[in-house]
Amino acid sequence: LILYVTKKEVTEAAAMEKKNGSKMNIAIIHPDLGIVELASHGHNVHIFTSHHDKNRCFEETLAGSFAVTVYGSFLPRHIFYRFHAVCAYIRCIFVALCVLFKWPSFDVVLADQVSVVIPILKLKKSSKVVFYCHFPDLLLAKHTTLARKIYRAPINYLEQLTTGMADLILVNSKFTASTFAATFKRLDSRGIKPAVLYPAVNVDQFTQPNGYKLNFLSINRFEKKKNIDLAISAFAMLGSPERLRENVDYLEQLKVLAEIKGVSKQVKFITSCPTAERNALLSECLCVIYTPKDEHFGIVPLEAMAAHKPVIACNSGGPVESVKDGETGFLCDPSPQSFSLAMAKFLNDPSLAEKMGSKARAHVATSFSTKTFGNKLNEYIMDVVEPHKRSKSD
What we know:
Layout: E1 2-4, H1 9-20, E2 25-29, E3 44-49, E4 67-70, H2 84-102, E5 108-112, H3 118-121, E6 128-133, H4 137-140, H5 146-163, E7 168-171, H6 174-183, H7 185-189, E8 195-196, E9 215-217, H8 229-236, H9 245-261, E10 267-268, H10 275-284, E11 287-290, H11 300-306, E12 311-314, H12 319-322, E13 329-332, H13 336-348, H14 350-367, H15 370-385
Parallel strand pairs: 2-3, 2-5, 3-4, 5-6, 6-7, 7-8, 9-11, 11-12, 12-13
Antiparallel strand pairs: 1-9, 1-10
Helix pairs in contact: 8-9, 8-13, 11-14, 13-14
């Protein structure tokens, strides 16, 4: 969604291996992270997944620096467009069983999203299991009808039970950590506290911007929870003249809203945006508008700041931890008035966007780069294998 306003790794790996004293064999189940950085630390990394589309996957998985093995690609992702959660569980369980019976023990097994695989992976006593909980799945699922509640009840129970079996639990933000404690109360009462490992962005893919056009850019899926109508309503206040049916309907509602607000000629909706086009749009815009409220983290603000662009985001959830208010962007109340005032600051002084953008790039490069992520993840993994070395600060 674009709002137009008219007017050397090998050396590092060897050094890291020498520092740690040894390298480990690490299995990764269903990757959805920048975990490929582990390979640069000298570890033997092997990824296991039920689906690996070479046309739509992490580019690093095609480089050949680690193995990728697919099990269960024949298993369905849904049954007549229903039972997505059950099918996801079945696929992940199948992958975990294949790893259990077909491969020797790994020092560490890193899993994410689906916790039901944890007890299977722990059957090999010599392996430590690290689970990355992006966000409690039971909070993302719908419980709107009695049938859905009955369907989700055993899944929700299993999620809490199996999550607690991991040797180490990681979450993507302090906000998610607090949500984890409030959601999995039995785990919290047992003293099971997740550690925070912020997601990362490859800063090297973003070069110096091509300028700062008077455009506002919003990058999101067209889902209601992304609150994109906030961006349109805020923009209108400045004074400027099928994959999922629900998403398609929301897109149509957004187009109608732009018509009602009188800004339809200045709002462009892009439904399929390749990486190269996204980076080009980031390079040219004035700033990025990030509208989701209570987002558990949000990778878009990181991508924006890595591209030298400030961010206007809701003052809640993950952006509170990633965006420095008044330095790398503005954190606002989720209202058109608040967002509009922040947008006006950049319109009145475009040089402010450049100044904040420079600070934003430095901030992301220091705190949220894939290298930073890899270093921190490596620390956690080394600590879980040798717990007596865990720093008290963690």
